[in-house]
Amino acid sequence: MRIGYFGGTINDGTIEEVIAEARDAEASGYSSYWAPQIFGHDALTVLAIVGREVPRIELGTSVVPTYPRHPMALAQQCLTVNASTGGRLCLGIGLSHQIVIEQMMGMSFDKPVRHMREYLDVLGPMSRGETVHADGEVYRVHGAVNVNGGSPFPIVVAALGPQMLKVAAERADGTITWCTGPKTLGEHTIPTIVAAAEAADRPAPRVVAALPVCVTSEVAAAHERAAEVFAIYGQLPSYRAMLDREGAAGPADIAIVGSAEEVVDRVGALAGIGVTDFAAVSFPGSPDEAHDTRDALAALIG
Fold first, then answer.
1. What is the pLDDT at residue 127?
2. pLDDT at residue 46 in the model
3. How far apart are CA 281 and CA 279, in angstroms?
4. Of 172, 142, 150, 141, residue with least CA distance to 159
5. How confident is the model over 197-223, as pLDDT tens digits?
6. Could you give the angle at the alpha carbon of 172 between the alpha carbons of 71 and 187, nearest 5°?
7. Distance, CA of 127 to CA of 302 (rounded, Å)
8. Which residue, of 14, 90, 142, 260, is most buried by count of CB atoms within 10 Å of its CB?
9. At a CB cut-off of 8 Å and minimum separation 6, what does 197 contact?
10. For the chain, where are the E strands, in sequence order?
11. Distance CA 58, CA 31 (A)
């Protein structure tokens, strides 16, 4: 299992601070650096810059919402990022949430599974440099993009329910999860996507699991902080469904918190259920906790 770092600087820091965060992740031995796409800097634009300054680490998005972006335009942007970074992009995409797409952006969130299926029917071939002829209900695309220096990029889909996991297995390279605990990963997410990939005669899917993590002796305080920092995710219906499946009252209940030994054991156990990549969302309450969390994860990186 590879250990990646889930960055947070992109939303409230400067581009220089994002570069520094990614550079530190690379120097610490992390295999990947994941940049969320929320309401701060544009993740793909920043990763194109980061890749010029930080030469080796894989660069991923977690995740780019699909509804506001035409798949042909997104393919063009990603091929450009790969031309800038030496082919190190892993594109994470997702639906976002109905409240964001409809109430904030004023767009339709109609038939999300159909949307993702047709979206990948365009984006998937274009990610490999192929010409697309797709005649769906929503996307009717005939064309290609030609980015000099671009190279194919893998796609992981933020898939939670069984239908979306099937789409990810059949049309993408895997899934990236958030607010999905180990019980749900082991009993639902991974068996579902693996079975769908096998049925479609597709390669074994990549499973990137992002979870909050903190090494601390103040466990109760860390859980309280997690409940506050990640509160919104317990209110969004898609994540709420995963937390309910886990039997968790909120995101704090799936945070990996405790001594260095406990954190190493709990993160390491994810490999045994089929997680291929762990993306650490560090939420320290002090510089000492940040240092200790980094050291504990380093034991898994080696």
1. 98
2. 98
3. 6
4. 172
5. 999 999 999 999 999 999 999 999 999
6. 135
7. 31
8. 90
9. 169, 170, 203, 204, 205
10. 2-6, 32-35, 58-61, 64-65, 89-94, 132-135, 140-143, 155-157, 174-178, 206-215, 256-258, 277-282
11. 6
Please report the pLDDT score of residue 72 as a whole number: 98
Residue 150, SS3? coil
Burial 170-191 (b: 16+ CB within 10 A, else e): bbbbbbbbbbbbbebbbebbbe
Which residues of the chain register pLDDT less than 50?
none
**Rounded distance between C-alpha atoms, residue 55 and residue 86, angstroms:** 8
What DSSP designation does 101 have? I
> What are the structure tokens assigned to 118, written together?
């047709």
Phi, psi of 213 (to 5 degrees): -145, 140
What pLDDT does residue 31 have? 97
Tell me the whole-structure pTM to 2 decimals. 0.96
Residue among 187, 186, 194 at smallest CA distance from 170 = 194
The gap from C-alpha 51 to its chain's centroid, in whole angstroms, comes to: 18
Q: Where are the beta strands (DSSP E) in 42-164?
A: 58-61, 64-65, 89-94, 132-135, 140-143, 155-157
Collect all residues with Cβ–Cβ distance below 8 Å to 23 and sequence separation of at least 6.
53, 54
CA 58, CA 26: separation in Å to the nearest integer?
9
Q: What are phi and psi of 159, to 5 degrees?
A: -115, 130
Cα–Cα distance measured from residue 159 to residue 173, given in angstroms and rounded to the nearest whole number? 12
Beta bridge partners of 209: 177, 278
